[in-house]
Amino acid sequence: MNFKVPRGTQDILPSETWKWQQVEKIIDTACDVFRYKEIRTPIFEQTDLFQRLVGDTTDIVQKEMYTFTDKGDRSLTLRPEGTASVVRSFVENKMFGYADQPVKLYYTGPMFRYERQQAGRYRQFVQFGAEAIGSADPAIDAELITLAMDVYKRTGLKQLKLVINSLGDTECRSAHKEALVNHFTPHIAEFCSDCQSRLEKNPLRILDCKVDYENPLIASAPSLANYLNEESANYFSEVKKYLTEANIPFEVDPTLVRGLDYYNHTAFEIMSTSEGFGAITTLCGGGRYNGLAEEIGGPSAPGIGFAMSIERLLLALDAEGIALVNESELDVYIVTLGESARQPAFSILRRLRNENIRSDMDYMDRKMKAQMKSADRLQAKFVIIIGEDEVAEDVVQLKTLSNGEQEKIAMTDLLQLLKNNLA
Ligand code: HAM
């Protein structure tokens, strides 16, 4: 039988994992600097949680969830995104009572959506997300956007575009909703069956329908920008001021509505503008979700966050021709000649590793030439060569692979010399 990875998933092999680790390091460092603490929530949650928080008229809930019934007859769902779980945890663990507010959290982990597979779109993908819950200060909106941009900047990405919009508060949303219903009702028969059922419940969703997105009635739909009340407009202009202050260029796009239901006020996406990037250019999406904690029985705790997939970040790096630096290269490879050198070599290896020197040796009983080839292929910085004569003299031959130079080193000097050279 021929087993393959399930469609839309991938193995990340050792030749690639170091890039993931590198990106994860960048994320951890940036979050540390911005004072966001890591949270780890379960991979699956009660199905209801996503239906309520992501919204049951969204594509994610209607079409893309991996839902199953467990042996106790509970309906569970593999998380399609992280915000619902973080807000659930915030409420369940009473984080609203923490002395320091807002509570600033981040996560990195696999998410699952049953989507059509294409470049940059997977059924299992890894999201890095950050959430700040408990503050309705426009400065925190700008902080989150800055964090996302900062992570990209630290990886070396340059060709980015930040697009922002305001979705307003409940009052503006209901006025806008009425206008959308009036706009679409006479023509609703031209739209897909999903949009027809969205018309009364949530006409905003029609604006990001993946089937009808080319229908001109979407482009001519009433813009939310014209329905923002004074408070929402002021909030949005404060966010823009903070972004300008932080030197983050942005474009305002009044058609940006996002694909999840929980947003209000600030919504944003970051796209790759690199020519080499595929059809899906959105690298990151996020926004404000005041009222989400209340939705599941928590107190009023306004929040904002974003998420980006590592897969798309790596694709964007490729498209810009940026190579991450592999910080985990081999420092020393030990080549042994003859049986009597094996145990002394093993003991050197032990001492090197005790000093955190990345080192390895041959375990395949190969000839010297094959061992030297391995050292080359593994891009070792140094090769230690040890045979019978060296053991007798208590020395090793130390070869620097970058220039081919080789010298005899007393065993007593070896460790210090390597430490100095690798520092
Ligand atoms: P989202 O826009 O659904 O938002 O996803 C955010 C990001 O996850 C996308 O911009 C993309 O990088 C990545 N992504 C989504 N689906 C896929 C896929 N099938 N394959 C690869 N990457 C994908 C959210 O998930 C919200 N929870 C973001 C948020 C956090 N809003 C507030 N806080």
Mean pLDDT: 95
Spatially, the strands of the biggest sheet line up as 1-5-6-11-10-9-7-8
Number of strands: 16
Strand content: 15-25%
Distance between the termini: 51 Å
Secondary-structure class: alpha+beta
Structural shape: elongated
Radius of gyration: 28 Å
Number of distinct helices: 15
Percent range for helical residues?
Answer: 25-40%
Largest sheet: 8 strands, mixed
Bound molecules: histidyl-adenosine monophosphate
Low-confidence stretches: none
Structural features, described:
With 423 residues, the chain is an alpha+beta fold. 38% of the residues lie in helices and 22% in strands. The protein contains 15 helices and 16 strands. The strands form three sheets. It has an eight-stranded mixed β-sheet, with helices on both faces. Strand 12, helix 12 and strand 13 (359-361) form a beta-alpha-beta unit. Helix 5 packs parallel to helix 9. It is elongated, with a radius of gyration of 28 Å.
Secondary structure topology:
Elements: H1 14-34, E1 37-38, E2 44-46, H2 47-53, H3 59-64, E3 66-69, E4 75-78, H4 83-92, E5 103-112, E6 124-133, H5 138-155, E7 160-166, H6 170-184, H7 193-201, H8 216-219, H9 230-245, E8 251-252, E9 264-272, E10 282-288, H10 292-295, E11 303-309, H11 310-319, E12 332-337, H12 342-354, E13 359-361, H13 368-377, E14 382-387, H14 388-393, E15 395-400, E16 406-410, H15 411-422
Parallel strand pairs: 1-5, 7-8, 12-13, 12-14
Antiparallel strand pairs: 2-4, 3-4, 5-6, 6-11, 7-9, 9-10, 10-11, 14-15, 15-16
Helix pairs in contact: 1-5, 5-9
Bound molecules: histidyl-adenosine monophosphate.
